[in-house]
Design brief:
Elements: E1 9-13, E2 21-22, E3 25-26, H1 30-39, E4 43-47, H2 51-57, E5 61-65, E6 68-73, H3 75-79, H4 82-87, H5 94-104, H6 116-126
Parallel strand pairs: 1-4
Antiparallel strand pairs: 2-3, 5-6
Length: 129
């Protein structure tokens, strides 16, 4: 018998996430993917158009456009270029737009927020709560 093989790489395609349903439950939960990455030191490549998922789960974001790398950085840094992303058919997480809108209306919030939890914390901080 050989040593047990430990999977070191998992590639998840967008259409497999949450869309394969068995007995009214998604076959793969996002939390399971996060667990695999963080607890088992597994490399997880998530191919997705959902910037909310990317913001929540990714440590690094690579944006491809017509076969070339447009951005390769932490998601927060890539989403700072949300206007450029729009030009190639992508977008930042919706909450990023909300934070930019609030800042544009004079609310002193950070605009590098990419998750709902971060936005809630930031807004509560600004409101003094």
């Amino acid at each position: 018998r050989g040593k047990p093989y430990l999977l070191q790489l998992l590639i998840m395609l967008e259409h497999l996430l949450g869309f394969i349903v068995v007995h009214d439950r998604p076959l793969v939960h996002h939390d399971q993917i996060a667990y695999l990455h963080k607890e088992s030191d597994m490399t997880v490549i998530l191919v997705s158009h959902s910037m909310e998922d990317i913001a929540k789960y990714a440590d690094r974001l690579i944006v491809m456009n017509k076969g070339t790398v447009m951005y390769n950085d932490e998601p927060k840094k890539v989403f700072e270029h949300y206007q450029e992303l729009e030009k190639v058919g992508l977008a930042a997480p919706q909450v990023t737009y909300i934070m930019h809108d609030l800042a544009g209306r004079g609310m002193p919030v950070r605009t590098d927020v990419t998750t709902v939890a971060e936005a809630a914390d930031e807004i509560m901080k600004v409101l003094g709560q």
